[in-house]
Backbone:
């Protein structure tokens, strides 16, 4: 594994696109959170905020920050799609195997990025939560309800697993990014809405919707009450989707011609 | 122990049978030419050996063991096209190759110099010309000085001086006792270095083995005189001559046994024809190959 991580590092060390995308993916959730915290802490909206129960004070800040950050996880997905489809574009997926990686090692290399990017997202949102809670909130630091940030982390992992699956199946950056966004911004929501309307709460179990169910938008979520499973059901659903996506990626990589 | 041993490798792409039941062995220290026209299955075969393609049936071993990543690391392989990260320099690309091979990190300077790329080591791969890309691929093959090399069309895209350089590199490697598996459709490319050969045509192995056993290459004589038609008539009466035809400005004659040029010269002079040209030639591998593939066509 050390060799794989070292090799992946050599691939991105001086890759400008990687660093630009990584900085964007890291900064945009931070900016969004500060923007929202600022917006709801000044002027007329400040009163409304108080009605909603101090969303930027501990412990509620964890849900607020996790929910706001979850809208930006597509940025990490783009980065993972680029890192994966690059290998197909440059045919280095073949060369890595020819030079002496096992096909399994190639999947591990991309899973390393999936985990690394998810952990970066987790760290950024945690730090943002702490800073916003301390600077905009009225309470002292508390990790009560930090579970919302963990839900956010799981949602990032499942989103990146889907992104990796799409990248491995489609092999081209442009089309993979388009399909990923079509799915994550529309298809998942629409299917979920249809299922909820005609079947019931099972509609909330779709891959990305499951994470959304766990992260109700704090500013409106309390106003709309809907039938929901217990949180663990959504967590299990997310873990199942991650496993399925990773399994298909492995199967595809182990069996197909490169 | 064979370096590479194949048993009944078959591979189909849709309607095209790319390889059907190919078996042969590559002995250590040999320069093993895999010959065949474009589309005969050479690259598919080497792709299977390096695990980028999956055979439909058949098995193969590298160094007597079922091939794995460990075995691939100790082989320098150039397969079809140079595959590198476009945004990285030649040097940095080789660092990645060395990292995966887990050897050769201290060898990058040497291989870049051998392949004539050292001056451009810091330029991005995407700025390289086709020939330079091929040189970088060769540098990657040489990284860590492997004992076994697989070269698929190694002179692709090179200019004449590049081709000459690559041939001399291959020659030196062969001379130092390394095993080289060389796929090519350019027969003169392998003619001078190959000790063994396997000939593929439309996925079928026509034959394989030591070059001297596999291909009967009868010597022939190229001669000319003032009247080539008369020369043909005369040389056909020479004992052991089985054919003579005018080819351009000379006559090509073949014989049942290795011809004695001095005797031919004397025979012609005694019969009143003075030769302006008389040369003993070996049939080129190319001719032998064309005859072979032609025979199996008909």
Residues:
């Amino acid at each position: 594994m050390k060799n794989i991580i070292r090799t992946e590092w050599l691939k991105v060390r001086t890759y400008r696109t990687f660093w630009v995308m990584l900085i964007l993916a890291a900064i945009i959730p931070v900016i969004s959170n500060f923007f929202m915290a600022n917006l709801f802490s000044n002027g007329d909206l400040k009163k409304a905020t108080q009605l909603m129960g101090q969303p930027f004070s501990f412990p509620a800040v964890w849900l607020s920050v996790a929910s706001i950050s979850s809208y930006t996880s597509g940025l990490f997905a783009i980065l993972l799609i680029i890192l994966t489809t690059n290998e197909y574009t440059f045919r280095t997926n073949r060369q890595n195997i020819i030079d002496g990686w096992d096909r399994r090692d190639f999947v591990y290399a991309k899973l390393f990025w999936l985990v690394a990017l998810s952990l970066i997202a987790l760290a950024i949102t945690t730090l943002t939560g702490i800073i916003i809670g301390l600077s905009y909130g009225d309470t002292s630091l508390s990790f009560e309800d930090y579970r919302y940030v963990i839900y956010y982390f799981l949602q990032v992992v499942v989103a990146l697993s889907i992104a990796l699956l799409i990248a491995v199946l489609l092999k081209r950056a442009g089309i993979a990014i388009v399909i990923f966004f079509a799915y994550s911004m529309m298809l998942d929501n629409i299917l979920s809405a249809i299922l909820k309307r005609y079947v019931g709460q099972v509609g909330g179990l779709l891959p990305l919707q499951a994470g959304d169910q766990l992260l109700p938008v704090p500013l409106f979520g309390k106003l709309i009450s809907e039938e929901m499973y217990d949180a663990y059901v959504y967590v299990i659903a997310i873990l199942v989707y991650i496993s399925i996506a990773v399994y298909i990626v492995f199967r595809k990589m182990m069996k197909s011609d490169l | 122990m064979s370096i590479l041993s194949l048993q009944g490798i078959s591979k189909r792409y849709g309607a095209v049978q790319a390889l059907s039941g190919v078996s042969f062995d590559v002995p250590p220290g040999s320069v093993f030419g895999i010959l065949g026209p474009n589309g005969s299955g050479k690259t598919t075969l080497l792709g299977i050996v390096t695990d980028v393609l999956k055979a439909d049936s058949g098995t193969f071993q590298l160094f007597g063991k079922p091939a794995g990543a460990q075995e691939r690391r100790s082989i320098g392989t150039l397969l079809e096209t140079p595959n590198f990260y476009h945004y990285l320099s030649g040097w940095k690309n080789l660092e990645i190759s060395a990292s995966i091979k887990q050897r050769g990190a201290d060898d990058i300077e040497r291989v870049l110099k051998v392949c004539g790329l050292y001056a451009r080591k810091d330029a991005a791969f995407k700025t390289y010309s086709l020939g330079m890309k091929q040189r970088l691929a060769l540098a990657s093959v040489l990284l860590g000085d492997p004992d076994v090399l697989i070269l698929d069309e190694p002179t692709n895209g090179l200019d004449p001086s590049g081709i000459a350089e690559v041939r001399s590199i291959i020659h030196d490697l062969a001379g130092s006792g390394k095993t080289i598996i060389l796929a090519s459709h350019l027969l003169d490319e392998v003619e001078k270095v190959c000790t063994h050969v396997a000939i593929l045509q439309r996925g079928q192995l026509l034959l394989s083995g030591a070059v001297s056993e596999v291909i009967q290459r009868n010597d022939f004589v190229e001669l000319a005189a003032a009247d080539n038609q008369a020369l043909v008539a005369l040389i056909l009466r020479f004992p052991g001559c089985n054919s003579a035809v005018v080819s351009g400005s000379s006559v090509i004659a073949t014989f049942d046994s290795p011809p004695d040029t001095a005797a031919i010269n004397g025979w012609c002079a005694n019969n009143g024809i003075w030769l302006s040209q008389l040369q003993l030639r070996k049939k080129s591998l190319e001719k032998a190959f064309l005859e072979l593939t032609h025979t199996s066509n008909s």
Notes: Chain B has a mean pLDDT of 87.
